[in-house]
Structures are given as structure tokens and as C-alpha cells.
Q: What sequence folds into this?
């Protein structure tokens, strides 16, 4: 039977990170049958303004496509920190994210959030799991997100992959590179942590990232993704959109990146890359 | 021999509708919204209302009075962040509080000349998210250091810095040439014209009551889009009365002649507005009904620096020139929209037009322009109630008057807006 955990307030993410070492995961091949809920969430307009400014969204009163992810993230952490969750809390890597917007979310909507885990499965380099976030307003489904996290471990070379769509050669991968170029500063991880609450040490500082196997702090995937979504937002409708990101090589801070996009009716396809085009950081596809 | 091109005739420019966000008192609901945020929300609201998503328009013209240096291309940047086709050109204008109406005149003139079929005019201002600059001393020091070619030169340049240079430069609501605030200027003019405290408070109370009534009857339903939890102009006091306003202490002027209070002066406000203007043909093709036609416009300026005219008196000069060109009398209008920078501004302007000596000596007319019917003045409320985000006021007035004329089943309206720098922008609408 599904266990329901109804939260009365947004959990403090710092608590999860402080106790993360105790959530080592286990060998179980299923995820606990648990749903974490939080109802009546009201967006803080000052927080929304800070997030929008940092990621490049206009503050229009309609929630950016990526914003509910940020609201649901503490619930995801609560699920992953729960007893019997098979993957460890620290060191899990965000590899993919899919968001579908059914109806536009207004900044003053009261949001009901439900998060559960599903589909624990092998990955070439370990195991991966989906954390599903559902947002509804007055019982009406509004926003649906699936975040896929990978825990490195025993390799499964035979595991099926989820390939990103091929980039249409001429527009994005050859010829002079054109597209927004962003300088991402050394302090970006701390800036995004301040607006998102995600103080994962791999993002905060080189000194806190090093023990976890990174030579420098790396940008939050949801930041670089949001930045790309923001750059394309004016070309997309407010609802009826599915936006998907495949995270590739992490963005080491500081660095300079470029977004190259093909925009066609009903679809955008973009590649976030290092400014010298040598490193592919993410592929983003949005369809409507 | 080349054939001579036929001279093109001008045509009428239609006001099809408008959109604005509710105006909010400064440092409140929109404290964290930038000019670009508010203008984008307003533009997208207009785009949604008139089905313009993905359309390439002739142009978008807008501006802001309080502007960050990074916003040099504010309107084009806003278009790029909006749902309009990114190939829609745009440019900024700035004529202080006349910005919004001047932007509309520019768009309407291009439509009239056949240079464009459709455009959007707008304006935005944030008194909350105001630009703060470095002091002149620090700026000169930094520029000198930047020009320096050697470390020694750079060190020398930076050594010139004085502690006082570190104080930032904050924008002030004063006239650069007189050092007086707009309210102080207005207080001088009001005293000269003997404008009473009671008359000012009456006008202010009427503004609140008219605006509240207009909201109640749904007049603003298709002119205003809620933004950041604000659904109505939050300066509006529906229960405002002359008695309540009479209790406020004067803030401008001195002694017994001090009549101007926070209640009969506009507060600093954040907000944005936009108006859709098009040719008759474009309107027909898009199945949109013109609300009114922007018939003609005039601007004027006065010498408030060394001359003896009041800072906000320019519309008093612009209107008679506009009337003469159109063969109209001041009484030939069904509605008058006189921007309430201060209640005293409206009252002084009206009193000047009733004054034979002023009309003869200053305006060069044979006699007084005469009085207007006060029942036709600012019938749906004006800036004292709605607030006054400088560049956004023109679009608010234009869209409201166009709708008012359309509701009325026709008629003629006069818009009069005073602006900093001793300028005035006025226009005629007909439906």
C-alpha cells in the first residue's frame, strides 16, 4: 500500500545535506511505495523575482516552466532521504529532466505538490531512478515533471539508453557559432543555491566539491537548463509544452557557455556548449 | 521621362485598444520588478488580448523616464522577450511624463503616412527599481584610470579619489536647471493663480470616486491585466472624501499658501501601459473595431527657467494651437482628460483658459478660451487616484479615453499631459 507523507511546510534542504552521509542507499531493486505531498503552496513573489532575474526570465506573473521543479525539489529530497530509498542522497547526478505544462501557472495560484519515485533501473554507469513531481491547482493537473538521477556504481553496459535527438547538422553543429553567450561566474553556484535552497556541496565551492570528486564547483543543472528555457521562453506558448533536457558534461565554474538553437514551428532544439564548442553540456528539446 | 509618383494621402490612425498592469505605489507590490519585466508583461497582455502572438508589427515604440544605462534599448529588448515576432522593430522615446502619449503620436503618424500598418505605443516606469549611479567624482576617476596606460598612471588616477566620491548618485525628482522639485514648482504656480486647497481636494476626491466607479462597472476589465497579485491600482481609495483629504498636512509650499498635500498630488508609482494603433485596413483585416481615431496632436514648451511661466503650464499653450488647427472651440469636446500631476495642475490650466488676460497676452488669442463642463473631466478617474508611473500615464489615458468614446457611441475627446522640462503633449481623439 502506498505510504502518504503529508508535509505541513517546505522541508529545510540543509538538514538533508547535513545528514546525507547516513543515506547510503541499499541493494533493493525497487523504490519504496511512498508519496510525499505538500498542499496550498504559495509562491513568494520576492523569491520568484530573484529566481527570474538570475535565470533570465521576465517577471510576468506566469511561473517560468522550470519554477515548479524548484518548489518540488525539497519533496524529492524528502523521498530520497526516506528510509529504504535504494540510492544514496549525495553523489546522485541529475541526468535528465522532462517537464510538461498542461496549463499556465499564475504566480498567485495555490499549488498542490505530490512527489514519488519510480522506475529504478540500470544505467550504463550504475543505477538510475525517476522522481516524479506533479503540480495541480484546485484538483486540476497543471504541471508534470520527471527528474532522472543516476547513482554511479556497478556498470551495466547492456542497459538501454535514452538518446537525445540528433542535432540538425547545419544549424547547430557547423558553421559560425551563433547564440546567447553567458559568462557563469565562480560564485554562480552560491547565487543559485540562495534562490533555490539547493546547497549541494558540489555546487557551492571548489573546496566542498573536491571531496566529492569534482576539481571545481559545477553549475546546478537546473540553472543552466532554466537559463536555456528562459532564452527561448518568448517563442513558446505558456501551456501545452513538453520540455526535455539531457545533461551531458557538467559546467565547471567559472566558465563561458553558448546556447545554440534551431527554432521551428512547434519545436526548439538546443545545445548548451562551451564557448569553444568543444564540450557539450546539455541538449534541450521543447515541443508544443 | 520618369512618371511623377502620385503624392500619397494621409489616412486615419485607429486606437484599437490598450492594456496596462495595475499601477502600484512605489516600493510596494512591484518593488522587485524591472521596467523590462513590467513592459514585457504589459506587451504580452496586449498581444494575448488582440491575438498578436508571433505577428510582425510595424513597430513598437515605448520609453521610460527613470532608466538604467543598461536599458538603452529597452523597448527592443522587451520585444525580444515578448510573444511578438522577433523581427518587429522597436525604439525608445523619452519626453518625461509626455513619453507615452508622444510614443502614440509617433506610431499614429507613421500609420497616417502609410509607413506602417500597425504599431504599439507604450511606456513604463519604476520608481522602486530606480537606477543608482556612481558619483561624478568616482566616474571621472574610474574613466581616468581606464585611460591610463601604465600602472603608475593608474595609481595616480585612483589616488585622486575623495571619500565623498564614494556616495552614490540617486535620481531625484527635481528640475536640473532650477533645483526645485516638480511639487515646489507647482506650488508657486498654484499660489500665483490662487488655487484653493478645497478645490484641489475636491478634484482629488472626484478622481478616486470616478476611478472606483469605473472599476465597479467593469470599465477596466479589458484595459487592465492583473500583475503580481495586484488587480487594481493600489493607490485607489474608493472611500476618499473631501473631509478625509482636508486632514492631510501640506507637503509643498510654505505658510498659509501651502495647499498641496500627499492627497492632492500624485504619489511615486510603478507601472506600464501599451496601446495598439493601426490603419483602418489592418483593423478590418484583423476583425478589430477601432475604438477611436487619433486625429491630431500638438506639443508645446514654456520658459520656466528665466521666463515667468509655470513649469507645468505648457499644455495651456499647446491646446489652443491644436484647436486652431482643427477649427474647434475648447467646448467642442465630450470628454477631457487632463493629467492630474497635481490637482493644482488641472485647476491652473482650466483657470488660465478662462482668464481673458492670460489668453490674450500669453496665448495671443482674441479672448478667453472659456470654461469646460466639469462633468466631462476625467470621468473614469485620473492620475491622483490611479497613480502616475511617468511614461505609462499617456497609454493609460489614451486607451481609457478611446474606450470611453466608443462606449459613448462616438464623440470627441481632448488629452492634455504636462511634462518635466516645461513641456506639454496634447491630442484629439474622435470616435
A:
Amino acid at each position: 500500500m502506498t505510504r502518504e507523507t503529508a508535509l505541513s511546510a517546505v522541508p529545510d534542504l540543509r538538514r538533508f545535506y547535513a545528514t546525507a552521509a547516513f543515506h547510503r542507499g541499499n541493494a533493493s531493486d525497487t523504490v519504496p511505495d511512498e508519496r510525499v505531498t505538500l498542499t496550498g503552496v504559495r509562491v513568494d513573489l520576492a523569491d520568484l523575482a530573484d529566481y527570474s532575474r538570475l535565470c533570465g526570465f521576465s517577471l510576468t506573473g506566469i511561473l517560468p516552466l522550470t519554477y515548479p521543479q524548484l518548489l518540488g525539489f525539497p519533496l524529492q529530497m524528502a523521498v530520497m532521504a526516506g528510509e529504504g530509498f535504494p540510492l544514496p542522497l549525495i553523489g546522485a547526478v541529475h541526468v535528465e529532466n522532462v517537464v510538461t505544462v498542461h496549463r499556465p501557472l499564475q504566480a498567485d495560484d495555490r499549488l498542490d505538490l505530490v512527489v514519488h519515485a519510480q522506475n529504478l533501473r540500470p544505467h550504463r554507469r550504475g543505477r538510475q531512478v525517476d522522481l516524479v513531481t506533479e503540480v495541480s491547482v484546485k484538483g486540476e493537473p497543471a504541471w508534470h515533471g520527471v527528474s532522472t538521477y543516476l547513482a554511479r556504481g556497478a556498470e551495466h553496459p547492456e542497459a538501454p539508453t535514452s538518446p537525445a535527438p540528433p542535432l540538425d547538422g547545419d544549424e547547430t553543429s557547423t558553421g559560425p557559432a551563433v547564440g546567447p553567450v553567458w559568462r557563469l561566474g565562480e560564485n554562480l553556484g552560491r547565487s543559485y543555491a540562495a534562490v533555490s535552497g539547493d546547497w549541494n556541496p558540489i555546487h557551492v565551492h571548489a573546496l566542498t566539491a573536491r571531496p566529492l570528486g569534482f576539481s571545481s564547483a559545477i553549475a546546478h543543472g537546473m540553472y543552466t537548463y532554466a537559463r536555456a528555457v528562459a532564452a527561448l521562453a518568448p517563442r513558446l506558448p505558456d501551456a501545452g509544452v513538453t520540455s526535455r533536457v539531457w545533461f551531458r558534461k557538467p559546467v565547471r565554474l567559472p566558465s563561458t557557455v553558448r546556447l545554440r538553437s534551431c527554432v521551428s514551428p512547434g519545436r526548439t532544439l538546443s545545445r548548451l556548449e562551451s564557448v569553444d564548442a568543444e564540450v557539450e553540456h546539455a541538449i534541450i528539446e521543447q515541443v508544443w | 521621362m520618369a512618371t511623377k509618383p502620385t503624392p500619397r494621402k494621409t489616412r486615419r490612425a485607429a486606437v484599437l485598444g490598450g492594456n496596462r498592469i495595475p499601477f502600484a505605489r512605489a516600493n510596494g507590490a512591484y518593488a522587485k520588478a524591472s521596467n523590462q519585466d513590467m513592459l514585457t508583461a504589459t506587451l504580452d497582455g496586449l498581444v494575448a488580448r488582440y491575438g498578436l502572438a508571433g505577428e510582425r508589427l510595424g513597430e513598437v515604440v515605448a520609453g521610460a523616464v527613470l532608466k538604467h544605462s543598461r536599458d538603452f534599448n529597452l523597448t527592443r529588448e522587451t520585444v525580444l522577450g515578448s510573444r511578438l515576432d522577433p523581427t518587429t522593430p522597436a525604439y525608445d522615446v523619452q519626453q518625461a511624463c509626455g513619453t507615452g502619449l508622444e510614443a502614440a503620436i509617433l506610431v499614429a503618424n507613421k500609420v497616417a503616412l502609410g509607413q506602417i500598418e500597425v504599431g504599439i505605443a507604450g511606456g513604463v516606469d519604476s520608481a522602486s527599481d530606480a537606477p543608482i549611479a556612481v558619483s561624478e567624482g568616482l566616474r571621472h576617476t574610474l574613466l581616468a584610470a581606464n585611460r591610463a596606460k601604465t600602472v603608475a598612471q593608474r595609481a595616480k588616477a585612483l589616488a585622486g579619489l575623495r571619500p565623498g566620491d564614494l556616495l552614490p548618485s540617486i535620481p531625484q525628482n527635481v528640475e536640473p536647471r532650477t533645483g526645485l522639485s516638480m511639487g515646489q514648482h507647482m506650488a508657486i504656480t498654484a499660489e500665483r493663480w490662487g488655487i484653493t486647497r478645497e478645490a484641489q481636494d475636491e478634484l482629488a476626491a472626484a478622481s478616486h470616486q470616478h476611478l472606483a466607479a469605473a472599476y465597479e462597472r467593469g470599465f477596466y476589465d479589458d484595459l487592465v491585466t492583473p500583475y503580481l497579485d495586484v488587480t487594481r491600482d493600489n493607490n485607489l481609495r474608493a472611500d476618499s472624501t473631501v473631509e478625509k483629504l482636508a486632514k492631510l498636512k501640506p507637503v509643498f509650499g510654505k505658510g498659509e499658501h501651502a495647499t498641496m498635500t500627499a492627497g492632492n498630488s500624485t504619489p511615486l508609482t510603478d507601472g506600464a501601459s501599451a496601446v495598439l494603433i493601426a490603419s483602418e485596413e489592418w483593423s478590418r483585416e484583423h476583425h478589430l473595431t477601432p475604438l477611436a481615431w487619433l486625429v491630431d496632436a500638438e506639443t508645446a514648451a514654456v520658459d520656466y527657467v528665466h521666463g515667468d511661466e509655470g513649469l507645468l503650464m505648457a499644455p495651456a499653450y499647446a491646446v489652443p494651437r491644436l484647436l486652431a488647427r482643427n477649427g474647434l472651440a475648447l467646448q467642442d469636446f465630450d470628454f477631457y482628460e487632463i493629467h492630474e500631476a497635481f490637482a493644482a495642475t488641472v485647476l491652473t490650466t482650466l483657470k488660465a483658459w478662462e482668464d481673458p488676460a492670460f489668453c490674450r497676452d500669453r496665448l495671443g488669442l482674441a479672448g478667453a478660451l472659456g470654461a469646460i463642463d466639469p462633468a466631462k473631466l476625467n470621468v473614469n478617474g485620473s492620475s491622483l487616484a490611479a497613480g502616475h508611473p511617468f511614461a505609462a500615464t499617456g497609454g493609460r489615458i489614451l486607451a481609457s479615453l478611446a474606450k470611453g468614446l466608443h462606449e459613448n457611441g462616438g464623440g470627441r475627446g481632448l488629452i492634455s499631459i504636462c511634462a518635466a522640462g516645461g513641456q506639454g503633449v496634447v491630442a484629439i481623439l474622435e470616435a
In short: Chain A has one domain: 3-287. The interface with chain B takes residues 45-46, 49-50, 52-53, 58-61, 107-108, 233-235, 237 of chain A (CB under 8 Å).
